[in-house]
Amino acid sequence: MFAAVRNRRGIVSAVEPFDGQEGRLHLVHLDYKDDQLPAEERLLWELEPRKVLLEPTALPDAVATDPMPSEDFDALLRAARWTAATPFLDPDGGGPLDRLPISSTFHGAVQVEDFQLVPLLKALQMPRVNLLIADDVGLGKTIEAGLILSELLLRRRIQRVLILTPASLRLQWRDEMWEKFSLPFDLVDRAETHALHRRLGMDANPWRSFSRIIASYHYLRQEDVLTQFLAACRTPEGSPHLPWDLLIVDECHNLMPSPFGDDSDLCRMLRLLAPQFEHRLFLSATPHNGHTRSFTGLLEILDPVRFSQTDELKKAERERIQQVVLRRLKREINARTNPPRFCRRNPPQALVLELSPQEIALSTAFDGFRTAIRRLAAGGETRRRRAGSFAVEILGKRLLSWPSITCARAFTTGSARCSFPSGTESLASPLSTARLWSCAAPPSAATRSFAPAPAIFSMRSRRTSSDSSPITPQNSRPISRANWKPPASKPAARRRNATEAARARFRP
Which residues lie across from 386 on neighbouring strands? Predict the structure, then answer.
């Protein structure tokens, strides 16, 4: 007998009546038929609001019910025909499971390439799926993972699935799973957790409430979130089942063990998570970072029975790698297909850059500036040396992205003066050679210091000579001098230094 309780439908498996203070009550055992959790529940029937008991022989009232729209009926008819055309998959039928027909390709809305079926066939031959898909970029690792996921669901081998991805790929994974395989997934983050607490109460755990979850591993590595996840993974003592069925980690090279020193927080998180899953599927186009210890550490997390973290691979371990690692390149696929499936890459060719004398002078001046800064900071403590190197790199980045550099006349300035902090007068010569700081603070400024990029753009227009075209920070194209007017200076801005004046100019 069916029952609809708490917006879910389930089968009434048992009823236990007992006498309470409020009279005779019934303890009903329900087995839900959807994919949500919990899969089964016991509740007091008389105390449940909006409960409905569905008789197995009851038919819908055709008079009181509106007829189905013709579009919905046609869609239902097409779905029934597709279901009839789908090969029947019976996991309890005769013969080994690896010889049963593949059904995920028929249930997905994607044109599957032949090479994308190889990971699926390899996974179906494993009693416990531990697979590292390291295909080249563009070969469809997401589709291959979706095929494996869909096939395992159809064979009823998995139910609870967790997909860990970078934060920027969560929506893409959710859309791919729904549009291509009709698999709904829930995104779990801080906002979804708060929304779940508002709906179900503060004791609700998102890792226990949803059966298919997509989350960012940077979010899951947080201490409170990881503690909440591990609390949801607790199983009764003596239970033969693991709390989760399938773990999919996209871009798993971000969670690789460190070849030297301590592992990162992401790697430690993955080591705690992996034993909670029966099947593990790792995806990465660059699974090897050049260090054997990191690669074998990742394989140990994937399959601790076959691998252990080591600095050198033996012959037996290399043979075992072929069992769990699958890597194909585009050139290998092209060699097996006619015509080639992917475009061929041309060999790299050197490009000769012809620098102008001004660009060479600028590069030479900045090299001298960099050397002088490092020489000054060499005698200090480590913190000062790092700060000096970081400041030089930031200045170099600002220099290369400066719109004024695109204009040759930007280096021909008038009587612009540049001021330097105390103790760095020796740096003025190489900088003034290339007119790098021609837009620094004016001589009349109360405080003379290096100005950031907004101040440079603000003060440049008043320090350039008559033969240079002003350039706006939003657009690197020169503005006609006939249409350009200098900004009117305010009395309050004159009393400020260059930085504060620039901030006042750019303040909305």
Answer: none
Mean pLDDT, contiguous 10-residue spans, the chain (508 residues): 84 83 82 76 84 74 81 90 68 55 84 92 92 93 95 89 95 94 93 90 88 94 93 85 94 91 91 94 92 93 92 89 92 86 84 85 87 81 82 85 55 42 42 42 39 41 42 42 47 46 45
Between CA 19 and CA 162 the distance in angstroms is 43
Examine the domain organization and report whether 423 and 480 are in the same domain: yes
The tokens of 56 are what?
């197995």
Answer yes or no: do 106 and 254 share one domain: yes
Rounded Cα distance between 478 and 461, Å, is 12
Q: Are strands 130-133 and 277-283 parallel, antiparallel or unpaired?
A: parallel
Domain coverage including residue 27: 2-54
Same structural domain, 145 and 290: yes
Main-chain phi, psi angles of 426, to 5 degrees:
-70, -15
Record the tokens describing residue 278, joined without a space: 């029966």
Q: Are residues 152 and 270 in the same domain?
A: yes
Is there a single domain that holds both residue 222 and residue 311? yes
What values do phi and psi take at 162, rounded to 5? -125, 125
Torsion sign (Cα): 287, 291, 292, 296: negative
Closest among 180, 224, 181, 183 to 205, alpha carbons compared: 224
* Pairing of β 23-32 and β 8-20: antiparallel
In a domain, 61, yes or no: no
Domain count, the chain: 3
Strands, sheet with 8-20, edge to edge from the N-terminal-most edge strand: 40-44, 23-32, 8-20, 2-5, 52-54
- The C-alpha atoms of residue 508 and residue 505 are separated, in whole angstroms, by 8
Is residue 131 helix, strand or coil?
strand
Residue 189 is assigned to a structural domain of this protein: yes
Decide: 413 and 438 in contact? Cβ < 8 Å: yes
Neighbours of 256 (CB within 10 A): 24
Residue 394 lies in a domain: yes
Q: Which of 106, 112, 68 is nearest to 87 (CA)?
A: 106
Query: Of 39, 54, 69, which one is at a domain's C-terminal end?
Result: 54
